[in-house]
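User: Reviewer 2 asked us to show a designed sequence for the structure in our supplementary figure. I'm pasting the structure tokens here. Could you produce the per-position amino acids so we can include them in the response letter?
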């Protein structure tokens, strides 16, 4: 016991800032003793963790400043960040200083502690994972979990569920593409209904901050448009992916707008201003320009994993077909050109689940 007291007091007196925090936090020493007692005593590992925790509490205890926490919540924040330091201190102390700093800098709210705790756990189990990639992956998965599909028809819901479960190129990877917004609290609802634009099969609306609505045309899904048969799962998947990318662009804009964090746009400067207009229905707009330039291979890769075993050209054609009717598409594929005919036939065959020109439907109908 004496040894524990000596060890703690040596940490306490090592630095005035630490001393100040310990003196000002009534539960800290009692909890430290409790923690040592329930974690196997003053082992070498625990000494490293304790040293790490005490050295970093002055930094972490002041990092809730961006929040409007009441005193109770501030205390919760301090307690959770101290637990985080004790639990991960030994692991963190072995990382390079810059990574340590990136991790500790993120401890700015109770929600962030939970996220960063999960990220560090993941890094612990996957030594090759970097912190940034791990953090982005977890936020992307959290957004994916936020997609509300309770008002979707069983067919579209089934396609969405399958997309969510893909291993390599699932929907979450769309959200990782640009870097991830800081506040991973976005809501996306998907419904069957009638999009605003009479020519559109689906659209995505910005409802309010961090809150988006994707509407997929009911008559298209049911196959009553022009007395066609219902579309195949490949066509529905392509539409869902396309709309989720729109939602992602809105999320990036909201992130900028809410937090003044424009790092998400570093690679595409000037585009964010165009997102502000929130109007992308038309033949020329910033969101579709970006999708056309950067996302077609990504959409194609997701489709390939969704329905493996088809030609790369086919996946690319279906991905590109979601840009149909846009000026970018028309410029690249002039009317009656062989490429355009092939893209049209491939997509139309999936839309109507019936042969078109040289194309036969490759997906499965779900109705
Ligand atoms: Zn679109």
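Assistant: Here is a per-position design you can include in the supplement:
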């Amino acid at each position: 016991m004496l040894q524990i007291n000596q060890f703690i007091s040596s940490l306490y007196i090592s630095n005035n800032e630490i001393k100040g925090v310990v003196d000002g936090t009534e539960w800290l020493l009692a909890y430290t003793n409790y923690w040592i007692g329930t974690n196997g005593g003053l082992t070498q590992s625990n000494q490293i963790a304790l040293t790490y925790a005490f050295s970093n509490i002055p930094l972490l205890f002041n990092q809730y400043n961006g929040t409007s926490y009441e005193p109770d919540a501030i205390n919760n924040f301090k307690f959770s960040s101290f637990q985080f330091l004790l639990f991960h201190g030994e692991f963190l102390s072995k990382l390079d200083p810059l990574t340590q700093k990136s991790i500790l800098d993120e401890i700015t709210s109770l929600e962030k502690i939970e996220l960063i705790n999960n990220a560090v756990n993941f890094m612990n189990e996957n030594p090759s994972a970097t912190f940034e990639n791990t953090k982005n992956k977890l936020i992307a998965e959290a957004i994916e979990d936020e997609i509300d599909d309770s008002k979707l028809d069983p067919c579209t819901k089934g396609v969405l569920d399958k997309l969510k479960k893909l291993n390599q190129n699932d929907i979450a990877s769309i959200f990782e593409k640009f870097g991830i917004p800081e506040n991973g609290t976005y809501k996306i609802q998907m419904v069957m209904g009638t999009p605003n634009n009479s020519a559109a099969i689906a659209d995505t609306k910005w409802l309010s901050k961090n809150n988006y609505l994707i509407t997929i045309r009911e008559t298209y899904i049911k196959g009553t448009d022009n007395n066609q048969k219902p579309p195949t799962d490949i066509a529905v998947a392509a539409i869902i992916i396309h709309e989720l990318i729109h939602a992602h662009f809105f999320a990036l804009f909201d992130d900028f707008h809410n937090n003044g964090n424009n790092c998400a746009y570093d690679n595409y400067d000037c585009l964010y201003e165009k997102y502000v207009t929130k109007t992308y229905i038309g033949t020329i707009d910033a969101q579709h320009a970006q999708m056309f330039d950067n996302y077609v291979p990504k959409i194609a890769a997701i489709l390939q994993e969704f329905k493996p075993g088809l030609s790369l050209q086919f996946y690319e054609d279906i991905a590109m077909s979601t840009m149909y009717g846009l000026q970018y598409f028309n410029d690249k594929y002039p009317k009656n050109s062989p490429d355009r005919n092939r893209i049209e036939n491939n997509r139309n065959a999936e839309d109507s689940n019936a042969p078109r020109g040289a194309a036969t439907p490759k997906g499965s109908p779900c109705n």
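For the response letter, you might also mention the following. The pocket of zinc ion is lined by residues 242, 246, 288 (CB under 6 Å). The longest helix spans residues 233-259.
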